[in-house]
Amino acid sequence: MKVSTSHRNKGALDPKNFPYSDITFVCKHYGKPRIRGVNERPRQSYFASGCNVKLRLVYVEAMNNYKVTVLSTEHNHPISSQAFGWYPENRRLEDSELKQVEDLLQLNVDIRNIKNFVSEKTGKTVISKDIHNIKKNLDNKMSKGRSEGQKVVDRLLKLQQDDPNATTVVEMSSDDEFELLFFQTSNMKLLYNQYPDVLFIDGTYKVNIEGYPLYAFLIEDGEGKGRAVGYAFVKNEKKDTIHKLFDHVGAKNDLNKVKIVFLDKDFTEISAVKRSMQNAHIMLCTFHVLKYLKKKVSDLDIRKNLKSDIMKAISSLVYSYSEEIYRERLTELLKLSPKSFSSYFTDNWDSCREMWAHCYRKSLPTLGNNTNNRVESHNQKLKHIWDGHVI
Asked: Residues 330, 318: contact at Cβ < 8 Å?
């Protein structure tokens, strides 16, 4: 119920208890629903649904009390405690509850989990839009009108203040355009120096509002867990940019310690690793090798069953456990395949077989790794908790 009309009771005998000469209460859904025009006010909500529930009280001086003059009790909509909880005024959080939600948002807790937390702690029903509104207000409060670029600079300055041994590198072009940003905390440096043998590198997208690719550098620690040892944003993935990035990484870390580097089959990354980590063996992720070759085979204009046979031959080639078996299976694959694919495979894959065939890596210190899944899983988690804004 809500107050529809009221008038002050100036001549009441007891104005404290009877402040109104008359007051009318109506249901929140009282009145005729407004009909919107086409494409007009598309986001404005109305509660009026034609409900006629109404209560009018009039002050009677002789009684020194209120008298009911109008009473209508028939709702035209569902009424329940659950429905009552959905109204905006009942979903509104107290200051202390709002502070808890803001703390959870700053920790990047999933919105669904925040809704469950609020329900358990307060008994209130909040919707996703409520949490998004709180987050928007929090972003505005924290940003204080700063641009995303200004917030990044502020964060880097704070990182250097809190962690004097951290590394932050920002490179700008000659026309003052952003090129790359590399940062590494002192703890990341320590982890790299402790476990430099195997390095996982991968770029990912859609993690910042500017659209810059993010590169993550991971190692495997003594407990077999992937640990980040550096991050970089780059303006693009052109050869010059990636080479500059690896130069900065090498300037702050002894890359001669790296024995194994896991990559996808990205020629720019491969050339950068060969240039900056000359002692390292490059290992291509088995998952991406098979995925890439499956796409190539699927594009061939041949029978479906032959495509299946070629993929089986490729898979057995990838998992060959000796060089002799590799050569035998390569011969089988080339016999099965059309001439165009045989030439393609020989030129582009057999020529770098040490990077992807398992028989050539069994004596190397890969720590049991054959894929880049550690860094890919890491990047997925980053996307899950990070909306791309710097707070």
From this structure: no
Please state, in angstroms and as integers, the Cα–Cα distance from residue 44 to each residue in 34, 86, 124, 135, 219, following that order. Answer: 11, 17, 23, 21, 51
pLDDT tens for the chain, 391 residues: list them. 788 888 888 777 787 888 888 899 998 888 887 665 555 544 456 678 888 888 999 988 888 888 999 999 888 888 877 778 778 888 888 989 889 988 888 887 888 899 888 888 888 888 888 888 888 888 777 666 665 566 677 777 888 889 999 999 988 888 888 889 999 999 999 999 999 999 999 988 866 667 788 999 999 999 999 999 999 999 899 999 999 999 999 999 999 999 999 998 788 999 999 999 999 999 999 999 999 999 999 999 999 999 999 999 999 999 999 999 999 999 999 999 999 999 999 999 999 999 999 999 999 999 999 999 998 888 888 776 665 554 4
Taking the C-alpha atoms of residue 216 and residue 199, their distance in angstroms, rounded to an integer, is 10
Residues contacting residue 182 through CB under 8 Å, at least 6 positions apart: 167, 168, 169, 230, 231, 232, 245, 248, 249, 252
Buried residues in 73-108 as b, exposed as e (16+ CB within 10 A): eeeeeeeeeeeeeeeeeebebeeebeebbbebbeee
* DSSP letter string, 291-315: HHHHHHHHTSSS-HHHHHHHHHHHH
58 CB-near residues (< 8 Å, 6+ apart)? 21, 22, 66, 67, 69
pTM of the model: 0.66
* Tokens (6 digits) for 352: 């770098």
HSE of 76, CA atoms in CB hemisphere, 13 A: 16
Which pair of structure tokens corresponds to residue 149? 């670029």
The domain spans of the chain are 2-79, 88-143, 148-284, 286-370
What is the bridge-based pairing of β-strands 260-263 and 281-284?
parallel
Fill in the DSSP letter of residue 51.
B
Distances (CA, A) of 186 to 14, 164, 165: 73, 8, 5
Provide the phi-psi class of 39: left if phi over 0, else alpha when psi is between -120 and 50, else beta: left
Integer angstrom CA distances of residue 57 from 3, 207, 279: 11, 59, 90
- Which has the closest alpha carbon to 355: 333, 370, 373? 370
Q: Are 261 and 199 in contact (CB under 8 A)?
A: yes
In three-state secondary structure terms, 86 is: coil
